[in-house]
């Protein structure tokens, strides 16, 4: 069976049914936690990122597959976002809700606002619901007026948009005032908003973000992105995030494509090719991708989202330069590793959070939690289908 057919079957038979089964018809949205033993906690916190990503997933699944049941799921997710996740008093999206839809963590994070824009833009494409587009535009305005300074995007705020410590998007023992991760996903969200609405003010910010990536985030000497920054966008940690680099490469290429400006194609393409080549060289072992390298020490865990982004990133690298057939082989090998080891074959499950380099799962990590959702693996399926439909691969 071809990779395309296998991926499509996995999307239809495994990922979509799994997330449909987590729908909460009593309190709205989707259940926020399933433990390693496949027990759903119906009273767990519902992350707003989780619910926006699920809404995004079902909206895109409907747009691709035209199955009305998927549209109903997207509408269910949108209703939860609109009725519960949005702060009707101060504007913006909360961080998380209690199981019953009341606020649990009222932090406003730029990253979270961005994922709501991402979801709302895709939902607008699927439904032509003008209210969703209006909400996306409002969140764009909030990010640009309340979450920025003269250098870039600030990160974390309280309910009234007073700046607070960025503990949610900081890791590895540092507290970062600015992060590559937030900048990347603002870019991703704005790309989607611009694609469906062609707003000139969004285009302007996409160009600004590309300039910032090229000039401050990308490190040409080390062939990587920097990850954590101080307020002035100076790097504060020697960290190479392999998963983010391969993800950034294809997301930047997608942004260039949507933007349609030759100047930015010429500026960004050498960077995305360099990131892809370096990841292939230092992080891919022939079947799967390591997590990251901090101060010269490699974390060899195979994380679910990193493996999903590896498939897309190498497929994209091959499509951008068909002479690099090793990238196509890498995408196929990574898909085989995912099938053999990352997919949880137990009835009623989905993907493991992480496995070791030989494919053995680390027991105890949840199957669903506020970050673990169908965004990465679902998107991998969408991208493989869109990129390979009609091709003999």
TrEMBL record:
Q: Which family does it belong to?
A: Belongs to the N-acylglucosamine 2-epimerase family. Belongs to the cellobiose 2-epimerase family.
SUPFAM superfamilies assigned: Six-hairpin glycosidases
- Give the source's domain of life in one word: Bacteria
Alphabetized, the UniProt keywords read: Isomerase
EC number from the UniProt entry:
5.1.3.11
Question: Pfam families in the record, alphabetically?
Answer: GlcNAc_2-epim
This chain's function reads: Catalyzes the reversible epimerization of cellobiose to 4-O-beta-D-glucopyranosyl-D-mannose (Glc-Man).
Per its record, the protein catalyses: D-cellobiose = beta-D-glucosyl-(1->4)-D-mannopyranose
Q: What is this protein called?
A: Cellobiose 2-epimerase
């Amino acid at each position: 069976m071809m990779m395309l057919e296998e991926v499509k079957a996995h999307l239809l038979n495994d990922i979509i049914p799994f997330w449909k089964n987590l729908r909460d018809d009593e309190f709205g949205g989707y259940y926020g936690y399933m433990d390693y033993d496949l027990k759903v906690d119906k009273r767990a916190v519902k992350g707003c990122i989780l619910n926006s990503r699920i809404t995004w997933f079902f909206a895109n699944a409907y747009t691709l597959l035209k199955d009305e049941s998927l549209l109903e799921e997207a509408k269910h997710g949108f209703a939860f976002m609109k009725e519960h996740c949005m702060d009707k008093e101060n504007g913006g999206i909360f961080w998380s809700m209690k199981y019953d839809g009341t606020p649990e963590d009222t932090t406003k994070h730029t990253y979270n606002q961005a994922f709501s824009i991402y979801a709302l833009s895709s939902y607008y494409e699927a439904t032509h619901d003008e209210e969703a587009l209006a909400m996306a535009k409002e969140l764009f305005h909030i990010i640009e007026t309340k979450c920025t300074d003269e250098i870039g995007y600030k990160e974390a705020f309280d309910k009234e948009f007073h700046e607070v410590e960025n503990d949610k998007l900081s890791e590895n023992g540092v507290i970062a005032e600015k992060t590559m991760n937030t900048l990347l996903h603002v870019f991703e969200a704005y790309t989607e908003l611009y694609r469906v609405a062609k707003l000139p003010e969004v285009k302007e910010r996409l160009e600004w973000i590309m300039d910032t990536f090229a000039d401050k985030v990308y490190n040409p000497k080390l062939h990587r992105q920097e990850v954590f920054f101080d307020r002035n966008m100076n790097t504060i940690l020697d960290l190479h995030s392999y998963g983010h680099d391969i993800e950034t490469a294809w997301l930047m290429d997608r942004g260039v494509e949507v933007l349609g400006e030759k100047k930015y194609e010429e500026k960004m393409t050498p960077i995305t090719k360099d990131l892809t080549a370096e990841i292939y060289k230092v992080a891919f072992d022939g079947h799967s991708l390591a997590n990251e390298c901090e101060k010269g020490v490699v974390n060899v865990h195979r994380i679910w989202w990193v493996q999903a982004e590896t498939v897309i990133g190498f497929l994209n690298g091959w499509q951008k330069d068909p002479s690099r057939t090793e990238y196509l082989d890498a995408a196929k090998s990574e898909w085989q590793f995912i099938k053999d080891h990352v997919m949880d074959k137990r009835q009623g499950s989905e993907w493991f959070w992480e496995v070791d380099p030989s494919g053995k799962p680390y027991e105890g990590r949840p199957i669903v939690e506020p970050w673990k959702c169908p965004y990465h693996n679902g998107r991998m399926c969408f991208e493989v289908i869109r990129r390979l439909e009609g091709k003999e691969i």
